[in-house]
Amino acid sequence: MRALIDTSSLLSMVRYYLPFDKKGVLFEVIKRKFETREIILLDAVFEECKYVGQKAILKKLDYLEDKDFLKENRIIVKTEDLIPLAPAKFLNQLKKQFVANPFQFRKLTEGEFEVKKKEFLDSADAKLIMYAQRLLKENPEEEFYLVTEETPAANDLKLFKKIPAICDILGIPVITLPELLEKYPEVDLGFG
C-alpha cells in the first residue's frame, strides 16, 4: 500500500497526534514509511510545509530537513515536469468539471482564467492529483490512497474544487489521516 500525503494531513499529524506519541512509535512508523516510499512526499507539498503553521511540520518531523536522510532515501519526489496523463482531457475537465464557483468562472476573462489555471496547475493540490493519476495508471493492482484532511465542500472562495471533489470525479481514492493510521497496525497510541 502506498499513500500520497497532503500538507493538511502532515499538519494534523504534528498538531493532534504526535503530542500524544510519548514513546515515539508514530514518529518512527511515519519515518519508516517515508524511507520505504509507502508514504510519498511531493516537492510541492514539502515546499508548503516550509510556510504552514510556523514550520510546525518540519520542526516535529525534523528528519525531513536532514539533507543526508533526504538524499539517502530519496524522500522528496520532483514534480517540475509533471503533466496530466491526458492533458487535453484534464484541461477540459478543469473548465467544465473542476470549477467550484461557476458564477466566479463566468466573470473571468479568458486571460484571467489562464492565470488562475496556471496557478492551480502549479499548486500542490494539482500536483497531488496529477501524480495520483499517474501512480494509479502505472500500478493498477497496488492499493493506493491520496491522504488529505480537506473535505469535498467548497467552503472558500477558490475557483477550483477541493482535492476530494476532484479525486471523486477522477476515481482517485481519498482517505483522511485517521483512516491511514488505521491501516498501520504497528501504530498504537494507547487510546484503544
Please report the number of helical segments.
Answer: 11
Helix content: 40-55%
Morphology: globular
Strand order of the largest sheet: 3-2-1-4-5
| pLDDT averaged residue by residue | 92
Low-confidence stretches: none
Euclidean distance between termini CA atoms: 24 Å
How does CATH name the architecture? 3-Layer(aba) Sandwich
The CATH topology annotation reads as Rossmann fold
The assigned structural class equals alpha/beta
> What's the multimeric state?
single chain
Brief synopsis:
By secondary structure, this protein is α/β, with parallel strands linked by helices. The protein is 52% helix and 8% strand. It has one domain: Rossmann fold (3-Layer(aba) Sandwich).
Task: Note down, in words, how this protein is organized.
The structure is a single chain. This protein is of the alpha/beta class and 192 residues long. It has a single domain (2-182), classed as Rossmann fold, CATH 3.40.50. 52% of the residues lie in helices and 8% in strands. The protein has a 5-stranded parallel sheet. β4, α10 and β5 form a beta-alpha-beta unit.
List strands and helices in order, with pairings.
Blueprint: E1 2-5, H1 7-17, H2 25-35, E2 39-42, H3 43-49, H4 56-60, H5 67-73, E3 76-77, H6 87-96, H7 102-107, H8 110-122, H9 124-138, E4 144-147, H10 163-170, E5 174-175, H11 177-182
Parallel strand pairs: 1-2, 1-4, 2-3, 4-5
Protein name: DUF4411 family protein
Pfam families: DUF4411
